[in-house]
Amino acid sequence: MIPYGKQNISQADIDAVVNTLKSDFLTQGPQVPEFESAIASYCGANFAIAASNATACLHLACLALDVGVGDRIWTSPISFVASSNCALYCGGEVDFVDVEPESGLMCTVALRNKLEQAKKLNCLPKVVIPVHLTGQSCDMLQIAELAKHYNFKIIEDASHAIGATYLQASVGKCQYSDICVFSFHPVKIITTGEGGVATTNCKKLAKKLSHLRSHGITKDPTLINDKNQGSWYYEQMALGFNYRMTDLQATLGSSQLTRLDSFVSRRNQLASRYKQLLKGLPLSCVNIHTENYSSYHLFIILLDDSTKRRAVFEHLKENGIGVNVHYIPIYWQPYYQALGFEKGYCKSAEHFYESIITLPLYPELQTHEQDKVIEQLKACL
Ligand SMILES: *Cc1c(COP(=O)(O)O)cnc(C)c1O
User: Fold this and answer.
1) Which atom of ligand 1 lies nearest, measured to the CA of 187?
2) Spatial CB neighbours of 45, under 8 Å, sequence gap ≥ 6
3) pLDDT for position 222
4) Are strands 283-285 and 235-236 parallel, antiparallel or unpaired?
5) Which sites are catalytic (predicted)?
6) How far is it, in rounded angstroms, from Cα 125 to Cα 211?
7) d(Cα 278, Cα 354) in Å, to the nearest integer?
8) Domain spans of the chain?
9) 8 A C-beta contact, residue 300 and residue 285
10) Which fold, 11-256?
11) What fold, for 260-380?
């Protein structure tokens, strides 16, 4: 089976992790801050905070932005459930903004209209979480303008998008957002096994993120209430979590990061080859906006005739092609249906979902494997 995504692990990655295994620290050692500063400098952000996974980063990001009971958080329905679950963890209320039909990205026209309505009804969101689906940035310039006008905060869910650029700048630079979150799950662009990072330019947010990641405990003498204590002393200031990344994970991350640009360029090369070879078939490829260089986490095709999706999907699976679907609209999940969402809520998202198939794409994918994917697609279309 050709999988839809796959990690790339080199001997250098293995050697680096073995070195850390033999070192004094498996966690809370020097590797995590080193990885954090490497990510911050790669992205051009002031701060990077590593955590156990991107879901934890999204949760921490909501908490750092003071999302609490009754606060409204808007995100895209075409995403992994973590993009909206993070708000529910904090007692927030989630709502969904419809997507662009050709890219599956949050639609800024739909966002503007929804904000206008919400203003009239006095129910504006506190935070909006745009999702950089497949590895291309949403229209952050527009979203940031709306954020100023309607006074909401922005968390970028860039789980797919490390190594991507928007208007020539790295995703993660946080020029148009408060916090940006990356995932390092093995199917993503680079991996730490499990892991995530949140970047920000705001010192106060960075402090909150790192504090909440480790039980809400501090040893920082400037923050401690009782100054007249020994050097063992610590205080818990907030209800935090154990969301720490280990040094083993961070070591793998730092080693992977040195190959990030080559991974993304190989993904782009394979993606343009797909586009070339798919010409003439009754389908389209996810549209990449001109201001973006995509990291191509996913290669999604949209079938012209969505009634054929199931048969095409099963044909490919039966013939050794590990296709997937990204994503089922979040609010179609039984958990969200029970919260009161109904099918038909975001028309473009549902149409997008019904016509999509994710084809295999990862740096080690061979051109003869790609040819096999095309051949099988042609056979059933
Ligand atoms: C993978 C993913 C997440 C969650 O990442 P984890 O590191 O597995 O917690 C969140 N949002 C999106 C869009 C993702 O693809």
Assistant:
1) 1
2) 39, 172, 173, 174, 180, 199, 200, 201
3) 85
4) unpaired
5) 188
6) 25
7) 19
8) 11-256, 260-380
9) yes
10) Aspartate Aminotransferase; domain 2 (3.40.640)
11) Aspartate Aminotransferase, domain 1 (3.90.1150)
The pLDDT-based confidence of 223 (bands split at 50, 70, 90) is confident
Model pLDDT, residue 314: 98
Residue 163 CA to ligand 1 center (angstroms) comes to 16
How far apart, in whole angstroms, are the C-alpha atoms of residue 125 and residue 369?
45
Continuous segment of H or E residues that includes residue 312: helix 309-318
Asked whether the beta carbons of 38 and 260 are under 8 A apart, the reply is no
Which of 368, 311, 314, 297 minimizes the C-alpha distance to 80?
Answer: 297
Nearest to 283 by CA among 298, 299, 302: 302
Q: How far is the CA of 158 from the centre of ligand 1 (A)?
A: 9
Angle between helices 11-21 and 247-257 (to 10 degrees): 150
pLDDT tens digits, one per residue of 88-104? 999 999 999 999 999 99
What's the pLDDT band for 29 if we cut at 50, 70, 90?
Answer: very high
Of all residues in the chain, the percent with pLDDT exceeding 90 is 98
188 is a catalytic site residue: yes
Predicted confidence (pLDDT) at residue 327 exceeds the cutoff of 90 = yes
Supply the DSSP symbol for 331: G
> Is there a shared CATH topology between the 11-256 domain and the 260-380 domain?
no
Residue located nearest, by CA, to atom 6 of ligand 1:
54
The strand ranges marked E within 120-260 are 127-129, 153-157, 165-166, 169-170, 179-183, 196-200, 217-218, 235-236
- Give Cα 285 to chain centroid, integer Å: 20
